[in-house]
Amino acid sequence: MEQFLWESKNSLAEVLARGGAGCAEKRVINAGDDGEAGAASGGVVRVHAVLGNEACDLDSTVCALAYAHFLAKTRPAGTHVVHIPVLNISREDLPLRPDVCRLLGSLGLSPAALTFRDEASLHTLHVRQKLTLTLVDHNLLPHMDTELEPAVVEVIDHHRLERPPSPGCCVTVEPVGSCASLVGAAMLLQAPHLLDLTCATMLAAAIVVDCVDMRVEAGRVTTRDREVLDELRRRFPLLPPSHDTFITLHAAKFDVSGLTVEQTLRKDMKVLKSGDISVAVCALFTPLEEYLGRAQLEEDLRAFCQARGPADGYAALVLMAVSFPEGSPVPSRQVAVYSCCEALQAQICGALQAADSPDLQLRAIESMSPVVSSFQQGTHSATRKHVLPILAGFLER
Ligand SMILES: [Mn+2]
Fold it and tell me: Residue ranges of the DHHA2 domain (predicted)?
């Protein structure tokens, strides 16, 4: 009989290392029915998904994995419920989170064992009254998921409480630095025996990253975060040093060397739309030089514009690069504009150069690339938040 990995006797590490092959709960959550897999498991009645937020950052990922593990092991057996962590992004977007990949990899955990949002038929399950949801690291479902709201039975989060109270839902919301501190606290209190080195390492990593290396001056860490991290460390003396974890994962987060041009652009993108023109505005976290020097840049940019956008594609791309030159307290900001249509590219450049609230103080960078127009931005304080309205105003005209 096929066993449900998350329900089995295995530790979290074993569950995740085994990968997804033959994974019965994946079929259940994919199909939204309990036909074959249900029969194999002795009749699955419900799926209890632990869902992180749409950013699917390290905190959300760790909380979903650890808390689903906790639920699977602490809920009475034989209730015909499978507990599954669901990462709230498509599987194809996992490489866009190199810090998450790095942490999972360092623990020997295989992404194959994870269930992503595009693999989970949550809406179908809900319609068939087979879904129960726990939200971690967010407390309000996004607009496209509001109809799942009646399925939510529990919330554990550290963001501002936005959900209206409902009788059937148990809400734990505390303004701590990391949601992993709340999940860790629950496990330490209710089922400390379920914590193993893998689980403790994941929780500690999320806490250290979200609390910015536990530095008080960063304004994120709370007493609660510190208490949970200290207790994890007391129980697991073999946990890697917090500072090392922070340095490694922080560097990994901004390491785009393993990403394709397309993935780099998609990583942090906002889209402006006016009439039938769409413009993608992408944030980059490396100097433009490192990026525009890539071979086949023009082909990649053109393909991105054509393949990725709405039906007509993106008419133009605006790249906003921010980096911190060594020893400099202020960021270096650069802007690049690309369009398959030369006239549009020139017009967008003109609009950005002419802007006066704020004045971006753009200085053309010659010879960086023949296909894009590149600028050094003199105004350090102007971020994408400021540039979007300039572009929106241009598109309206
Ligand atoms: Mn969080």
Answer: 246-395
